[in-house]
């Protein structure tokens, strides 16, 4: 709905960068990690076949989906830089959240597949060659630690990068689990340790997947970001001289690093309109809200300027 008055210019809003600098910044790290993941995945498949280890083959399958997840993250980091259009006023930024959600769902599928295969092997665990197990798992641990270091800088700022980062972490846990299984087999000869460790790895993967899916869904539902309180936003707006009340207040995440806010502020004196907008923009940017749309009203229900949703 759009409402306008003819005697007063539209309310000014703070602009929003419709390209995600976070995604572009971490694209190089994603490319390096993708190459490392695919190369080592081939080594794990060979090692799993030679040693007969389900844990290695499960980790190789996991690395295959990791490669797909990181490739998806890399693709999204490219397409999200496309400019906005009149039909897509925020551009393609939300693709980052959809990619993160897809990666989380893929992790659920991987974990379920590992548990299914492990349960089938518990009754008659195959013989495993521990030396090959140790060699491949150690190499995998080193590769995953390097990949984690490359993606660490971006995982706390971008859901898309975080999805790839969680895949790498779960791979690292897989390598640790394979080493543990190999150690148990060497010391005790208990080959059932291999599928049991695979189940434990799957449970850790499920935990990471649930967190990623939950956060992605919250962004898609336009929930208030966890680090921002709507009450604090309201208090800052009401604290501006000339503002009597605030209503219809909404704060949501467009994509990682892009938080938006819209609301109505009652300002009885129309001469204070621009001053209120300038102060509000600065105050809210200090809270991490860089896309501000504030509708100024003389009295509740009497809008000044334009109100577009």
Structural features:
disordered N terminus; four-stranded mixed β-sheet; 61% helix; 309 residues; Alpha-Beta Plaits; alpha+beta; elongated
3D structure, described in words:
This protein has 309 residues and is α+β, with helices and mostly antiparallel strands. The chain folds into 2 domains: 21-220, Alpha-lytic protease prodomain-like; 224-308, Alpha-Beta Plaits. Helices cover 61% and strands 13% of the residues. The chain has 9 helices and 6 strands, in the order βααααααααββαβββ. The strands form 2 sheets. A 4-stranded mixed beta sheet has the order 2-3-4-5. Strands 1-6 form a two-stranded antiparallel ribbon. The protein is elongated and about 85 Å long.
Secondary structure elements and their pairing?
Blueprint: E1 2-3, H1 21-25, H2 27-51, H3 54-79, H4 95-122, H5 130-155, H6 159-188, H7 193-220, H8 230-238, E2 243-255, E3 258-267, H9 273-285, E4 291-299, E5 302-304, E6 307-308
Parallel strand pairs: 3-4
Antiparallel strand pairs: 1-6, 2-3, 4-5
């Amino acid at each position: 709905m759009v409402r306008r008055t003819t005697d007063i210019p539209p309310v000014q809003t703070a602009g929003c960068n419709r390209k995600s600098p976070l995604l572009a910044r971490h694209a190089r790290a994603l490319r390096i990690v993708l190459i490392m993941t695919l190369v080592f995945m081939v080594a794990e498949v060979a090692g799993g076949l030679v040693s007969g280890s389900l844990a290695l083959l499960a980790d190789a399958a996991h690395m295959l989906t990791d490669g797909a997840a990181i490739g998806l993250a890399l693709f999204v980091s490219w397409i999200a830089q496309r400019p906005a259009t009149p039909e897509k006023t925020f551009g393609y930024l939300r693709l980052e959240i959809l990619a993160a959600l897809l990666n989380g769902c893929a992790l659920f599928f991987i974990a379920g597949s590992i548990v299914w295969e492990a349960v089938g092997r518990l009754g008659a665990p195959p013989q495993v060659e521990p030396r090959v197990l140790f060699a491949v798992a150690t190499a995998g641990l080193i590769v995953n630690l390097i990949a984690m270091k490359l993606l660490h800088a971006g995982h706390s700022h971008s859901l898309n990068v975080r999805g790839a980062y969680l895949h790498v972490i779960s791979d690292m846990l897989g390598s640790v689990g394979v080493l543990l299984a190999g150690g148990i087999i060497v010391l005790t000869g208990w080959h059932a340790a291999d599928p049991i460790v695979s189940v434990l790895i799957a449970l850790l993967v499920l935990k990471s997947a649930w967190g990623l899916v939950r956060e992605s869904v919250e962004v898609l539902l336009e929930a208030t970001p966890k680090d921002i309180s709507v009450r604090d936003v309201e208090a800052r707006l009401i604290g501006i001289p000339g503002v009597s009340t605030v209503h219809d207040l909404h704060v949501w995440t467009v994509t990682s690093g892009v938080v938006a806010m819209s609301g109505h502020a009652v300002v009885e004196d129309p001469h204070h309109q621009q001053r209120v907008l300038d102060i509000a923009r600065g105050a809210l940017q200090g809270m991490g809200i860089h896309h501000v749309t504030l509708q100024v009203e003389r009295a509740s229900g009497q809008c000044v300027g334009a109100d577009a949703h």
